């Protein structure tokens, strides 16, 4: 038999198929399925196309799929939305049994391999989630309009803020300034206003992509870019430290998942600097889509 795991984040949706020996058979990536970005019709289209493409790529039929586990960003926060999403998935997956989770739960299952501890997610948004002796808790995850500190969106906004200050002369110009200007093909600094408000309409996903410029600038030694990562690391460490207060056993096992961590030392080192001495930060065992597959296989609910 086979199991499907889906990681539905704010930027992309990853579908993965695993067999009963926990070997990955294949994966595909589609655009985001978040209803705030694509609507409920868009969410349905992503899942209908994603499921069909995954099965076709792996050469199996629906009948061979025992169970699916789906983790979605923001799932479970609003009851009306929760019910609507469940109806849509049921219509798409039909006879395939499925479970729906918040994406932080499948990230925890993947990063920590089902063990107790804390996972910090920093992708388009940010959130921390802990499981300790059967009890779970979340910190953060308030969304980009309220919080999401340390996320790719948050970093992207800091990049925009930094550029504006550099253009004014409030900060010294560096690699970040020139790289953003080149990336967006700006002939005039003030064209940034039109790009943000008209071209991308302040899109959460598009703004989050600007975090990549911060990483590239940091690699070239840009001090402002490095400081943005330092602030991001401090915010993520604060989430971890808050969750760590629930634990008595030490060291506390902490791992991480999300696109921000592709920035490697620029985000990892600040987090390590600001977390407590009783916390051990470890590389993730698996990605979130694999965590979803493992949950589907074990039919285990965290």
Question: What share of the residues does DSSP label as strand, in percent?
Answer: 15-25%
CATH class of the largest domain: Alpha Beta
Q: State the order of secondary-structure elements, H for helix, E for strand.
A: EEEHEHEHEEEHHHHHHEHEH
- What coarse outline follows from CA principal-axis ratios? globular
- Enumerate how many helices there are, as a single number: 11
Strand order within the widest sheet? 3-2-1-4-5
Which fold name corresponds to the CATH topology of the largest domain?
A: Nucleotidyltransferase, domain 5
Q: Identify low-pLDDT runs.
A: none
Give the biggest beta sheet: 5 strands, mixed
Mean pLDDT: 93
Tell me the number of structural domains.
2
User: Rg to the nearest angstrom?
Assistant: 20 Å
Salient structural properties:
Nucleotidyltransferase, domain 5; 11 helices
Q: What can be said about this structure in brief?
A:
This is BadF-type ATPase. Residues 4-296 form the ATPase BadF/BadG/BcrA/BcrD type domain. With 302 residues, this protein is of the alpha/beta class.
Report on the structure:
This protein has 302 residues and is α/β, with parallel strands linked by helices. The protein has 2 domains: 2-112 and 287-298, 2-Layer Sandwich (Nucleotidyltransferase, domain 5), CATH 3.30.420.40; 116-283, Nucleotidyltransferase, domain 5. It contains 11 helices and 10 strands. It has helices spanning 35-58, 79-93, 103-111, 152-168, 175-183, 191-199, 204-209, 211-219, 223-244, 265-274, 288-298; strands at residues 2-8, 12-19, 24-31, 65-72, 98-102, 117-122, 126-132, 135-140, 252-257, 279-281. A 5-stranded mixed β-sheet has the order 3-2-1-4-5, with helices on both faces. A 5-stranded mixed β-sheet has the order 8-7-6-9-10, sandwiched between helices. A hairpin with a 4-residue loop joins strand 2 and strand 3 (24-31). The radius of gyration is 20 Å and the shape is globular. 47% of the residues are buried. It comes from Clostridium uliginosum. This is BadF-type ATPase. Residues 4-296 form the ATPase BadF/BadG/BcrA/BcrD type domain.
